[in-house]
Amino acid sequence: MTQTGEELAQKVEAFVRETIVPFESDPRIETHGHGPSEDLVAEMRALAREAGLMTPHILADGSHLSQVDTAKVLRASGLSPLGPVALNTMAPDEGNMFLLGKVASPDQKARFLAPLVSGEARSAFFMTEPAEDGGAGSDPTMMQTTCHLDGNHWVINGRKAFITGAQGAKVGIVMAKAEEGACMFLVDLPDPAIRIERVLDTIDSSMPGGHAVVAIENLRVPADQMLGEAGEGFRYAQVRLSPARLSHCMRWHGSARRAHEIATRYACTRKAFGKLLVDHEGVGFMLAENEIDLRQSELMIDWCAGVLDTGAHGTTESSMTKVAVSEALMRIADRSVQVMGGSGVSGDTVVEQIFREVRAFRIYDGPTEVHKWSLAKKIKKQHVSRT
Question: Which segments constitute the Acyl-CoA dehydrogenase/oxidase C-terminal domain (predicted)?
Answer without folding.
Answer: 231-378
